[in-house]
Amino acid sequence: MKAFVVNRYGKKEKLQLTSVTEPTVGRKDVLVQIFATGVNLLDSKIRDGEFKIFLPYKPSFTLGHDVAGVVVKIGSDVKQFKVGDEVYARPSDHRIGTFAEFISMNESDVALKPKNLTMEEAASIPLVGLTAWQALVEKANLKKGQKVFIQAGSGGVGTFAIQLAKHLGATVATTTSTANIDLVKSLGADIVIDYKKEDFETKLKDYDVVLNSQDSKTLEKSLRVLKTGGKLISISGPPDPAFAQEIKANWFLKFIIKFLSSSVRKKAKQLNVNFSFLFMRANGYQLTEITNLIDSGIIRPVVDKVFSFEQTNEAMAYVETGRAKGKVVIKVK
């Protein structure tokens, strides 16, 4: 089959289109023919080698973290899916590889595709949807009447998280550029701050939750807009000791991770607020919950551009500009 692979780590490295062996199907696996895949900054960071300390993929490997397609083969113990099912997923770490024609995944990572979405729309959802769900529902336990600040509201995670937070009954503040103010308001944002003209720290206070996706300077300012006991959940780092525990890191990696987050954890403690890092994980059950919200019309996908399979490197370059509204998708089939 054809696939775009990372031959070696590096910021200037291009993915190579090549022929690779079709993946094998284990007892609990489904083989999916890929119709569309989403592009995420995570793909660029993995290609650049930023995460190889705890995700040590050995080149050459196929990149890609979002998939929508059709089940073409199932393992002997698969219970939830049958050949012909339209599905979508974020494959688990160490089994990524959606920039390809086929992928094999454990059935527990997969969900039936929302009925009213195209393959391209469905492929835009898994990684950002699960990130927002795990941040706002699982970690923050966001409740009706609470206030949440979601950074970068017009981005992939932001466009999904705003809609989810509104569904949960929260008041939503977000940052975006002038050009995207109408978009984030249409998704449900109550307070919109044009980051080119205003400083969110002077506008926001006593927030229950912050979803941080920006740099360390923004993270530090975000800690100060929280109320006492408030929670900041960061998807852009730095990783914390709980994450080290989660990935069963060795003692040396635990030490490095503890050191990387020591400054922000100290600042959070001084302000009497909570800091935690989220590196989202595959979860077919949560994705099924998300499917229900989409089928009910509560959440809609926001897709900026669709590229052809041959344009995978161009799609990655476009995502890296940081200008995409919502998600960028590659049509594979």
What do these coordinates show?
This protein has twelve helices and 16 strands. The chain has helices spanning 41-48, 119-123, 126-139, 156-167, 181-187, 200-203, 216-223, 241-246, 251-260, 262-271, 284-295, 312-320; strands at residues 2-6, 16-19, 29-39, 61-62, 67-74, 86-89, 102-106, 110-112, 147-150, 171-176, 191-194, 207-212, 226-234, 274-277, 303-308, 327-331. Strands 3, 5, 6, 7, 8, 15 and 16 form a seven-stranded mixed sheet that branches. Helix 3 (126-139) packs across helix 4 (156-167). The chain starts with a strand and ends with a strand.
Number of helices: 12
Unreliably modeled segments: none
Helix content: 25-40%
Largest sheet report: 7 strands, mixed
Concise description?
The chain is of the alpha/beta class. It is built from twelve helices and 16 strands.
